[in-house]
Design goal:
Distance between the termini: 52 Å
CATH architecture of the largest domain: 4-Layer Sandwich
Mean pLDDT: 89
Order of helices and strands: HHEEEHEHHEHEEEEEHEHEHEHEE
Low-confidence stretches: 1-12, 29-44
Number of strands: 15
Number of helices: 10
Helix content: 25-40%
CATH topology of the largest domain: Metallo-beta-lactamase, Chain A
Strand content: 15-25%
Shape: globular
Number of domains: 2
Structural class: alpha/beta
Length: 311
């Protein structure tokens, strides 16, 4: 009997402690909320954007890439999918009331990235067009690449060879990493782009694979950290290495790929690697177009219907 009574007494004391701690927690939460300090201890990935003035659109172009960035009324397009996706991208630009592009970047001259660019350049005023410089023996002789060069010539435009540089897109800072090194794979000559909008950062890696990723990490000197990572080469096992993921430490990952594509993208081993870092992984084959909205602190992630994807 004494032992039974002793146990009951301990339980009662525990309940009292829990009650006191709960009251203290509530008082602390109220204080932090009223003082405006609550936001400081909430994970950035849990904050929604309020009055967003920047957006990043991972346009669903099937097995290819196309990314639209809009900030303070200025727009930048990175890639435009295959040739038959030019009008798809144009329709999306129109839906976003984009009638001119301050920058257009072709990450590398593979058709699933530059195929739609001739149509875009023909139909939208473009201030600056950026392509990587690749070795002569890696320069493609494909019909779509020749069409792109012909379009640039007919439009009396100039191609700016990608170089390490920074420029502004509205209030966004855009950092370009030109491809460096000698490779046997055209994917590794992809232009990489880092976008910074306040506390929100994005890294777009084209089709960069492991060899070029190592080079990028080495020369970036610790500046690759980004909240959102567009996985290289559509989620292929040859990209998104542990070395790159360690440098970027993404909270969100985006994969641009086509439903049921013949390459099996994204590869499961890549998903397994990325899941150790990113809280959310979005795929255009499953989610359609994925849209990030930023106010410089919070992020809201939506699909093209406006549904929130992080619920």
């Amino acid at each position: 009997m004494p032992q039974k009574y002793k146990n009951r007494k301990v339980i009662g004391n525990n309940n009292t402690v829990v009650f006191i701690l709960t009251v203290v927690a509530v008082i602390l939460a109220v204080y932090l909320y009223k003082s405006g300090k609550l936001d400081e201890i909430i994970s950035d990935s849990d904050k929604a954007a309020v009055n967003a003035d920047m957006s990043v659109h991972f346009i669903d172009v099937g097995q290819g890439d196309s990314i639209l960035v809009i900030c303070d009324g200025e727009a930048m397009l990175i890639d435009a999918g295959e040739k038959d996706c030019g009008q798809i991208v144009a329709s999306y630009l129109d839906s976003m009331n984009v009638d001119s592009l301050k920058y257009v970047i072709g990450t590398h001259p593979h058709s699933d990235h530059i195929g739609g660019l001739p149509y875009i350049l023909e139909n939208y005023q473009t201030d600056t067009f950026i392509l990587p410089k690749v070795p002569d023996d890696m320069t493609p002789d494909t019909a779509i690449y020749e069409q792109l060069l012909e379009t640039v010539k007919n439009r009396k435009m100039k191609i700016r060879a990608a170089r390490d540089e920074m420029f502004q897109l509205g209030s966004c800072k855009v950092q370009i990493f030109k491809p460096m090194g000698d490779y046997n794979n055209l994917n590794d000559y992809s232009v990489c782009v880092k976008l910074t909008h306040g506390e929100n950062t994005f890294l777009f890696t084209g089709d960069t694979e492991e060899d070029a990723e190592k080079n990028l990490v080495m020369r970036s000197r610790g500046s690759l950290d980004a909240k959102v990572l567009k996985l290289g080469h559509h989620g292929s096992s040859t990209s998104s290495s542990v070395e790159l993921l360690d440098a970027v430490k993404p909270s969100y990952a985006v994969i641009s790929c086509g439903a049921g594509n013949k390459y099996g993208h994204p590869h499961q081993e890549t998903l397994d690697r990325v899941e150790k870092y990113a809280k959310y992984i979005f795929r255009t084959d499953l989610n359609g177009t994925v849209i990030f909205e930023s106010d410089g602190k919070g992020l809201t992630v939506k699909d093209s219907s406006g549904s929130i994807l992080t619920k």
